[in-house]
Amino acid sequence: MVDSDGIAAELHAIAERIARSGQGDWVDAWRSGDAVTTDQAAMISGVSADTMRRRREDAAAEGQDLGVLHCGVWSFSKRRVLNWIEKHQGLHARLVAEDRARKSADLRLKPQKLPENVS
To answer: Is residue 118 helix, strand or coil?
Structure first.
């Protein structure tokens, strides 16, 4: 006999675990590359750091904060910044910003070569 209530409860529990799995903490955000500094968010957006701070205030006023203040330093969500760009400037602007973000990540990931006389 099939226990439909048990199956439904199990499916509900699985759905909740899946929903929570995308909600990591700030360490997960840094490790995944979603958390960026104000300067990085500004570079991705093609604006100054001051403009990025104003955008954060504007987005917060709309109910969609772009970042969090932690120990006196702002950390922005790259995903939220890109979504904000698409909403306010269009898809083309988002694609350009994504390209800047990708290039920036590539530069950060490349290891520096040591001079040959250094051991």
So the answer is: coil
Predicted pLDDT of residue 109? 57
Residue 101 burial (CB count, 10 A): 20
- Sorted by where each begins, the domain ranges of the chain are 25-109
40 and 81 Cβ atoms separated by less than 8 Å: no
Is residue 55 pLDDT above 90, yes or no? yes
Task: Tokens 């955008």: give the residue.
Answer: 55
What does 26-70 look like in DSSP terms, one character per residue? HHHHHHHT-EEEHHHHHHHHTS-HHHHHHHHHHHHHTT---EEEE
Q: How many angstroms separate the CA atoms of 9 and 15, rounded?
A: 10
Rounded to whole angstroms, how far apart are CA atoms 81 and 83? 5
- Provide the 3-class DSSP secondary structure of residue 112: coil
Instruction: Kindly report the length of the chain.
Output: 119
Of 33 and 84, the one with more pLDDT: 84
